[in-house]
Amino acid sequence: MAKKKKPVNEMSFLDHLEDLRWLLVRSSAVIVIMAIVTYFFADYIFDEIIFGPTRPDFVTYRFFCDVAQRLGMTGDICIKELPFIIQNTSMEGQVNIFIWTCITAGFILSFPYILYETWKFIGPALYEKEKKNASIFIIASSLLFFLGVLFGYFLIVPLSVNFVATFSISNVVKNEFNLESYIGMIKTSVIAAGLFFELPIIIYFLSKLGLVTPAFLRKYRKYAIVIVLIVAAIVTPPDVVSQVSVSIPMLIIYEASIFISVFVHKNKLKNG
What biological-process GO terms show up in the record (predicted)? Predict the structure, then answer.
């Protein structure tokens, strides 16, 4: 006979830990299952997705080239070659990369389910009206995460690859990138961008808890702008088009977070 779950106000600290443990177990199981699914598409994932930004005909490079030509801009925006090679220097390197890439892909594909499990965990502490918004929370958070992943893959990754591939301190030095370093850069860029796009959702809950206010976000807006511009300057080539393309979506996300915080704050004042 299944054990009946206690009401949240009767649960001890250990009961909450038990719920958290099962959240992690179920989420990990789904990630592994999705990682196994990606195994059957490994050739496409590596050849077309992972190593896509290493080719001059990658969609992002062609897009910026077309934009530059229409604006009458000259320079090295149109990429004809990416002078580097990717090499494996470890005996088990390709095996490890294969496994962890499948797990990373499994995590990305499992993100909506992880959000669902997270909502189930925090749901008992929410008001009845908030519980009814579970589907909205999961759909909105998932869409933001996947938009962030696409932003990281189609903008941050290719611009970073182009920059490091064409940067040279001397003609004597040839770029031969380690496979683990290249894959690590892609994973970091994609997942970090996906999580950054969750900022409006995070701000919503922090505002609900009273830990963040619109005034706080407005006060530190100028610092946020500076940080975004610095990040854009680091991960993109030294041209205005690339830097603006990365900066604008990140600034829009921050401004959207302020708007959400204002909405939550007004509702709290309205409801007393």
Answer: intracellular protein transmembrane transport; protein transport by the Tat complex
Residue range(s) defining the domain that contains residue 223 = 198-272
How far, in Å, CA of 213 to CA of 203, rounded? 9
Give the three-class secondary structure for 68.
helix
**Are 227 and 174 in the same domain?**
no
Token pair recorded at residue 78: 């149109």
- What's the per-residue H, E or C state across 74-125? CCCCCCCCCCCEEECCCCCHHHHHHHHHHHHHHHHHHHHHHHHHHHHHHHHH
Amino acid 10: pLDDT: 57
Q: Which helix (H) or strand (E) holds 219?
A: helix 214-219
pLDDT, tens only, 89-119 = 888 889 999 999 999 999 999 999 998 888 8
**How far apart are alpha carbons 142 and 238 in whole angstroms?**
32
- 52 and 106 part of one domain: yes
Please indicate, yes or no, whether residues 99 and 212 belong to a single structural domain of this protein.
Answer: no
Q: What is the pLDDT, as a whole number, of residue 129?
A: 62
DSSP 58: -
Examine the domain organization and report whether 142 and 247 are in the same domain: no
Residue 177 CA neighbour count, 13 Å, CB half: 20
Asked if residue 132 has pLDDT above 70, the reply is: no
The mean pLDDT of the chain is 83
Q: Is residue 245 domain-shared with residue 136, that is, in the same domain?
A: no
